[in-house]
Protein backbone atom coordinates (compact mmCIF):
# COMPACT_ATOMS: atom_id res chain seq x y z
CA UNK A 1 0.00 0.00 0.00
CA UNK A 2 2.82 2.35 0.87
CA UNK A 3 4.66 1.56 -2.35
CA UNK A 4 1.52 2.08 -4.41
CA UNK A 5 1.05 5.54 -2.91
CA UNK A 6 4.67 6.56 -3.39
CA UNK A 7 4.65 5.56 -7.05
CA UNK A 8 1.26 7.15 -7.71
CA UNK A 9 2.37 10.64 -6.79
CA UNK A 10 4.90 11.17 -9.59
CA UNK A 11 2.40 9.71 -12.07
CA UNK A 12 -0.28 12.10 -10.84
CA UNK A 13 2.08 15.06 -11.07
CA UNK A 14 3.13 14.03 -14.57
CA UNK A 15 -0.50 13.76 -15.62
CA UNK A 16 -1.36 17.20 -14.22
CA UNK A 17 1.66 18.72 -15.92
CA UNK A 18 0.73 17.10 -19.22
CA UNK A 19 -2.84 18.37 -18.93
CA UNK A 20 -1.61 21.86 -18.08
CA UNK A 21 0.68 22.00 -21.10
CA UNK A 22 -2.02 20.57 -23.38
CA UNK A 23 -4.62 23.08 -22.18
CA UNK A 24 -2.26 26.01 -22.78
CA UNK A 25 -1.07 24.92 -26.20
CA UNK A 26 -4.42 23.78 -27.57
CA UNK A 27 -6.64 26.56 -26.28
CA UNK A 28 -9.51 24.22 -27.02
CA UNK A 29 -10.85 23.98 -23.46
CA UNK A 30 -10.90 27.63 -22.57
CA UNK A 31 -13.51 29.38 -20.52
CA UNK A 32 -15.56 32.37 -21.67
CA UNK A 33 -12.49 34.36 -22.60
CA UNK A 34 -10.72 31.62 -24.51
CA UNK A 35 -7.81 31.05 -22.12
CA UNK A 36 -7.74 28.06 -19.75
CA UNK A 37 -9.10 28.90 -16.31
CA UNK A 38 -5.85 28.46 -14.43
CA UNK A 39 -4.75 31.00 -11.88
CA UNK A 40 -2.55 33.76 -13.24
CA UNK A 41 0.30 32.58 -11.03
CA UNK A 42 0.25 29.25 -12.88
CA UNK A 43 0.87 31.04 -16.17
CA UNK A 44 3.61 33.18 -14.57
CA UNK A 45 5.24 30.01 -13.21
CA UNK A 46 5.17 28.41 -16.66
CA UNK A 47 6.73 31.51 -18.23
CA UNK A 48 9.45 31.59 -15.57
CA UNK A 49 10.24 27.86 -15.70
CA UNK A 50 10.00 27.26 -19.45
CA UNK A 51 11.69 30.57 -20.27
CA UNK A 52 14.55 29.75 -17.91
CA UNK A 53 14.87 26.32 -19.50
CA UNK A 54 15.37 27.78 -22.94
CA UNK A 55 17.63 30.47 -21.50
CA UNK A 56 19.99 27.80 -20.17
CA UNK A 57 20.26 26.28 -23.64
CA UNK A 58 20.58 29.70 -25.25
CA UNK A 59 23.48 30.70 -23.01
CA UNK A 60 25.35 27.43 -23.56
CA UNK A 61 27.03 28.61 -26.76
CA UNK A 62 30.67 27.54 -26.65
CA UNK A 63 29.99 24.47 -24.52
CA UNK A 64 28.88 23.65 -21.00
CA UNK A 65 32.09 24.59 -19.25
CA UNK A 66 32.73 26.26 -15.87
CA UNK A 67 33.45 29.62 -17.51
CA UNK A 68 30.14 29.48 -19.46
CA UNK A 69 27.91 28.68 -16.50
CA UNK A 70 27.48 32.36 -15.50
CA UNK A 71 26.25 33.22 -19.02
CA UNK A 72 23.86 30.27 -18.95
CA UNK A 73 22.44 31.39 -15.61
CA UNK A 74 22.17 35.00 -16.81
CA UNK A 75 20.26 33.88 -19.89
CA UNK A 76 18.01 31.69 -17.75
CA UNK A 77 17.04 34.81 -15.81
CA UNK A 78 16.85 37.13 -18.80
CA UNK A 79 14.47 35.20 -21.06
CA UNK A 80 11.54 35.11 -18.58
CA UNK A 81 12.48 38.60 -17.38
CA UNK A 82 12.24 39.89 -20.96
CA UNK A 83 8.79 38.40 -21.45
CA UNK A 84 7.32 39.26 -18.06
CA UNK A 85 8.75 42.80 -17.96
CA UNK A 86 7.45 43.51 -21.47
CA UNK A 87 4.06 42.14 -20.46
CA UNK A 88 3.94 44.17 -17.24
CA UNK A 89 5.03 47.44 -18.84
CA UNK A 90 2.39 47.11 -21.52
CA UNK A 91 -0.52 46.47 -19.15
CA UNK A 92 -1.16 50.06 -17.88
CA UNK A 93 -1.62 51.48 -21.39
CA UNK A 94 -3.65 48.43 -22.36
CA UNK A 95 -5.93 48.96 -19.35
CA UNK A 96 -6.47 52.64 -20.15
CA UNK A 97 -7.38 51.96 -23.77
CA UNK A 98 -9.61 49.07 -22.64
CA UNK A 99 -11.47 51.45 -20.34
CA UNK A 100 -11.78 54.18 -22.99
CA UNK A 101 -13.39 51.70 -25.37
CA UNK A 102 -15.86 50.54 -22.73
CA UNK A 103 -14.26 47.10 -22.36
CA UNK A 104 -13.20 47.33 -18.73
CA UNK A 105 -15.45 44.45 -17.65
CA UNK A 106 -13.51 42.15 -19.99
CA UNK A 107 -10.08 43.30 -18.85
CA UNK A 108 -9.35 40.41 -16.46
CA UNK A 109 -10.40 37.89 -19.10
CA UNK A 110 -8.18 39.58 -21.68
CA UNK A 111 -5.22 39.56 -19.28
CA UNK A 112 -5.70 35.84 -18.69
CA UNK A 113 -5.68 35.27 -22.46
CA UNK A 114 -2.53 37.37 -22.90
CA UNK A 115 -0.68 35.68 -20.06
CA UNK A 116 -1.72 32.23 -21.27
CA UNK A 117 -0.24 33.20 -24.63
CA UNK A 118 3.01 34.14 -22.91
CA UNK A 119 3.06 30.73 -21.28
CA UNK A 120 2.45 29.06 -24.63
CA UNK A 121 5.28 31.04 -26.22
CA UNK A 122 7.77 29.87 -23.61
CA UNK A 123 6.64 26.26 -23.98
CA UNK A 124 7.35 26.48 -27.71
CA UNK A 125 10.74 28.02 -26.92
CA UNK A 126 11.53 25.21 -24.51
CA UNK A 127 10.70 22.63 -27.17
CA UNK A 128 13.49 24.11 -29.30
CA UNK A 129 16.11 23.81 -26.53
CA UNK A 130 17.42 20.39 -27.72
CA UNK A 131 17.77 21.73 -31.27
CA UNK A 132 19.64 24.78 -30.01
CA UNK A 133 22.04 22.52 -28.11
CA UNK A 134 22.49 20.42 -31.24
CA UNK A 135 23.27 23.33 -33.55
CA UNK A 136 25.69 24.75 -30.96
CA UNK A 137 27.45 21.37 -30.86
CA UNK A 138 27.87 21.51 -34.65
CA UNK A 139 30.43 24.29 -34.15
CA UNK A 140 28.53 27.17 -35.72
CA UNK A 141 30.10 30.67 -35.41
CA UNK A 142 28.70 33.23 -32.99
CA UNK A 143 26.96 35.23 -35.74
CA UNK A 144 25.07 32.13 -36.86
CA UNK A 145 24.09 31.41 -33.26
CA UNK A 146 22.53 34.88 -33.13
CA UNK A 147 20.60 34.20 -36.33
CA UNK A 148 19.50 30.78 -35.10
CA UNK A 149 18.07 32.15 -31.86
CA UNK A 150 16.41 35.01 -33.72
CA UNK A 151 14.70 32.42 -35.92
CA UNK A 152 13.64 30.37 -32.88
CA UNK A 153 12.09 33.40 -31.19
CA UNK A 154 10.41 34.28 -34.47
CA UNK A 155 8.85 30.83 -34.78
CA UNK A 156 7.77 30.88 -31.14
CA UNK A 157 6.22 34.32 -31.61
CA UNK A 158 4.36 33.17 -34.73
CA UNK A 159 3.00 30.20 -32.78
CA UNK A 160 1.97 32.55 -29.98
CA UNK A 161 0.05 34.68 -32.49
CA UNK A 162 -2.03 31.64 -33.41
CA UNK A 163 -2.71 30.93 -29.74
CA UNK A 164 -3.60 34.54 -28.98
CA UNK A 165 -6.09 34.74 -31.85
CA UNK A 166 -7.66 31.50 -30.65
CA UNK A 167 -7.91 32.80 -27.10
CA UNK A 168 -9.32 36.12 -28.29
CA UNK A 169 -11.98 34.64 -30.57
CA UNK A 170 -14.69 34.46 -27.84
CA UNK A 171 -13.91 38.04 -26.79
CA UNK A 172 -14.17 39.29 -30.37
CA UNK A 173 -17.45 37.45 -30.79
CA UNK A 174 -18.70 39.16 -27.65
CA UNK A 175 -17.57 42.62 -28.77
CA UNK A 176 -15.80 43.39 -32.09
CA UNK A 177 -13.82 46.17 -30.35
CA UNK A 178 -11.58 43.44 -28.97
CA UNK A 179 -10.18 42.97 -32.47
CA UNK A 180 -8.80 46.51 -32.23
CA UNK A 181 -7.48 45.81 -28.73
CA UNK A 182 -5.68 42.74 -30.02
CA UNK A 183 -3.86 44.92 -32.56
CA UNK A 184 -3.13 47.53 -29.90
CA UNK A 185 -1.58 44.90 -27.66
CA UNK A 186 0.59 43.48 -30.44
CA UNK A 187 1.87 46.98 -31.21
CA UNK A 188 2.59 47.75 -27.55
CA UNK A 189 4.25 44.40 -26.97
CA UNK A 190 6.50 44.68 -30.03
CA UNK A 191 7.51 48.28 -29.23
CA UNK A 192 8.36 47.54 -25.59
CA UNK A 193 9.87 44.13 -26.32
CA UNK A 194 12.42 45.46 -28.80
CA UNK A 195 13.67 48.01 -26.27
CA UNK A 196 13.72 45.48 -23.42
CA UNK A 197 15.61 42.97 -25.55
CA UNK A 198 18.19 45.63 -26.35
CA UNK A 199 18.64 46.59 -22.71
CA UNK A 200 18.98 42.98 -21.49
CA UNK A 201 21.53 41.84 -24.06
CA UNK A 202 23.70 39.77 -24.28
CA UNK A 203 21.58 36.64 -24.10
CA UNK A 204 24.11 34.34 -25.76
CA UNK A 205 27.42 36.03 -25.04
CA UNK A 206 30.47 35.55 -27.23
CA UNK A 207 32.94 33.14 -25.56
CA UNK A 208 35.89 35.50 -26.19
CA UNK A 209 34.31 38.41 -24.29
CA UNK A 210 33.92 38.89 -20.51
CA UNK A 211 30.67 37.52 -19.09
CA UNK A 212 28.46 40.34 -17.80
CA UNK A 213 24.76 40.61 -17.04
CA UNK A 214 24.43 43.87 -19.00
CA UNK A 215 26.51 44.84 -21.99
CA UNK A 216 28.53 48.03 -21.79
CA UNK A 217 26.39 50.92 -23.04
CA UNK A 218 23.20 48.88 -22.74
CA UNK A 219 21.05 51.83 -21.69
CA UNK A 220 20.64 53.25 -25.16
CA UNK A 221 17.76 53.73 -27.53
CA UNK A 222 17.17 50.46 -29.37
CA UNK A 223 15.49 52.13 -32.31
CA UNK A 224 18.30 54.62 -32.83
CA UNK A 225 20.86 51.83 -32.66
CA UNK A 226 18.89 49.62 -35.05
CA UNK A 227 18.61 52.53 -37.48
CA UNK A 228 22.37 53.05 -37.34
CA UNK A 229 22.93 49.34 -37.97
CA UNK A 230 20.55 49.46 -40.93
CA UNK A 231 22.25 52.57 -42.35
CA UNK A 232 25.67 50.93 -42.03
CA UNK A 233 24.39 47.72 -43.60
CA UNK A 234 23.09 49.43 -46.77
CA UNK A 235 26.05 51.79 -47.04
CA UNK A 236 24.27 55.08 -46.48
CA UNK A 237 26.24 58.07 -45.23
Characterise the protein shown here.
- With 237 residues, the protein is mainly alpha-helical.
- It has 8 helices and no strands.
- The protein has helices spanning 2-26, 40-58, 69-100, 107-127, 129-137, 142-174, 177-200, 222-234.
- α3 packs antiparallel against α4 and α3 (69-100) runs antiparallel to α7 (177-200).
- The protein is globular and about 55 Å long.
- The termini are far apart.
Key features?
237 residues; mainly alpha; disordered N terminus
Largest sheet: none
Rounded radius of gyration (Å):
20 Å
Structural class: mainly alpha
Helix content: over 70%
Give the low-confidence spans.
Answer: 1-8
First-last Cα distance:
78 Å
The number of helical elements comes to: 8
Strand content: under 5%
The succession of helices and strands, N to C, reads HHHHHHHH
Mean pLDDT: 85
Give the tally of β-strands: 0
How does the overall form come out from the CA principal axes? globular
Report a brief summary of the structure.
The chain has helices at residues 2-26, 40-58, 69-100, 107-127, 129-137, 142-174, 177-200, 222-234. With 237 residues, it is mostly helical. Helix 3 runs antiparallel to helix 4 (107-127) and helix 4 runs antiparallel to helix 6.
Amino acid sequence: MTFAFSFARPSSFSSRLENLIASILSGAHGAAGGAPRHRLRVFVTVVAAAGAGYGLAMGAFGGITPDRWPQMLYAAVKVPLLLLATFGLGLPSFFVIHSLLGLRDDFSTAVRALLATQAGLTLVLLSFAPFTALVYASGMPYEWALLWNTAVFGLASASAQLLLRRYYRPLIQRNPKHRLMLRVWLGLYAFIGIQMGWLLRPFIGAPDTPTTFFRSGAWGNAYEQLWNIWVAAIGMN
